[in-house]
Task: structure prediction
Amino acid sequence: MLRKTFLSYHHHLDVVRACQIRGSGLIEPTDLASDHVWAAISRAGDTAVRRWIDAQMNEADCVIVLVGQITAGRRWIDYEIQKAWHDGRGLFGIHIHNLKNDHGSQTSKGADPFAGVAIDGVPGALAGRVPCYDPPYLSGRDVFDYVCGKLPQWIERAIASRQAVQSWPAIRSA
Result:
């Protein structure tokens, strides 16, 4: 069974890498928007962007943050991580820097986006709680094959983990 999945990523730099994951046939993406639709949503302002993200994410069982070179710390990525966590959705990251873009280029590894996100006012509260997988290969093809081999397992693990976490106390600062 394919899980409905929202992909969170830096659109401009990593859209081709995200398309590779979408095209794997291993997920049912909820976050589809053509370039011209996304441009129209973006031009409509923050409320429209938030509304679009919320609507797409509300259909998802799991949120996967595709971690590129400059994914961490981006406003909308942080919002998507926070929303996924607060909504109790499966959540994890995958470093995609070694997947190739449309020019055949790879990038340098980006920082773990969960390390800097504040949850309930606690910065970095998800560091170590939410996995961020780093495929152990340099070749784009090997990275893609590795991700495809692990993706269903990672999704199910993330969903089960979040169901278990629902009984955890809220994250609070010490």
The CA atoms of residues 137 and 143 lie 6 Å apart. The two ends are 41 Å apart (CA to CA). The chain has a mean pLDDT of 92. The longest strand covers residues 3-8.
